[in-house]
Amino acid sequence: FANYWMLVTLPATERGTYGDMFGAVNSIFTGLAFVGLIYANMQQRHEIKIARTEARHTKEILDQQQSHLDRQNQETKKQSFENTFFQLLRLLTELTENMDLTGTKTQGGLTTRQTIAEGKDVFVTFSNRVNSIFEGSENTTLTFDQKYNEFYESAGSDLGHYFRTLYNIIKFIDNSETEPKSFYTNIVRAQMSDAEITVLYYNGISAYGITKFKPFIEKYGLLKNLRRESITQPNFTHLYEPTAFGKR
After folding, report:
1. Among 61, 178, 214, 217, which one is least packed by beta carbons within 10 Å?
2. Beta bridge partners of 117
């Protein structure tokens, strides 16, 4: 209103001069606008920096949560594996304990059946039998297959079940994601008596084990505890890789 009153009262020739004095004010406001733009830009950069810091912290939290979930998942898988593993191991133990060998005895014209061996003692009998079959035999595949089949036919009903169970336990460990696998195969090996390992030594290179079981025997050193004096035919050892006996 004051500017309007001033313009009305001024002559027309002086009105332009009066308007020019506002040029400096216009420059001031332009400068202030530029300063405001710089300030807004600085504020925006600060907010972006804060946002990036928050995003980085959020990512770190999410990574920690994911890592925690991964550990939980691994622990769950390990617990599930170990539950199944020890159930299978218990099954093998029960299977061995329930083994028995019977024979006939004739006395006074009367024939009766009697128990020869029970539990792990059955494998002592088996190891003695298979050792006696191979004692002094030549190291040929044909001779081996013939002689082992002779032994297996008399013991296959018990040994077939035992070795299938043992094989599937080792296969279960090998197919799992749990590490180290050798820790669990060592537990299995520790449960085996000298007589069991002796029979495994012959079975692994027979037609019943050479295709599927022998690679596991070599991979996990299942014959590591084999005592050389417990076998009558050590010449077959060259049919195994050295790793089968725990050698690297």
Report:
1. 61
2. 101
For residue 93, the 8-state DSSP code is: H
What 166-174 contacts at long range (C-beta under 8 Å, 24+ apart), as own/partner pairs, is: 166/92, 166/200, 167/209, 167/212, 167/213, 167/216, 168/88, 169/85, 169/88, 169/89, 169/92, 170/213, 170/216, 170/220, 170/222, 171/216, 172/84, 172/85, 172/88, 173/85, 174/216, 174/219, 174/220
φ and ψ at 186, to 5 degrees?
A: -65, -35
**Long-range contacts of residues 237-246, Cβ cutoff 8 Å, at least 24 apart:** 239/205, 240/204, 240/205, 240/214, 243/218, 243/219, 244/204, 244/214, 244/217, 244/218, 245/221, 246/221
Give the Cα separation of 245 and 237 in Å (integer). 9
Instruction: Give the pLDDT band (50/70/90) at residue 28.
Output: confident
Q: What's the whole-number mean pLDDT along residues 98-107?
A: 75
Shortest CA distance to 218 belongs to which of 177, 246, 190? Answer: 246
The answer to whether the beta carbons of residues 192 and 225 sit under 8 Å apart is yes
Mean pLDDT within 45-57: 87
Cα angle 181, 185, 189; round to 5: 165
pLDDT at 99 over 70: yes
Q: Which residue's entry shows tokens 């300063």?
A: 35
> E strand or H helix at 113, and its extent?
strand 110-118
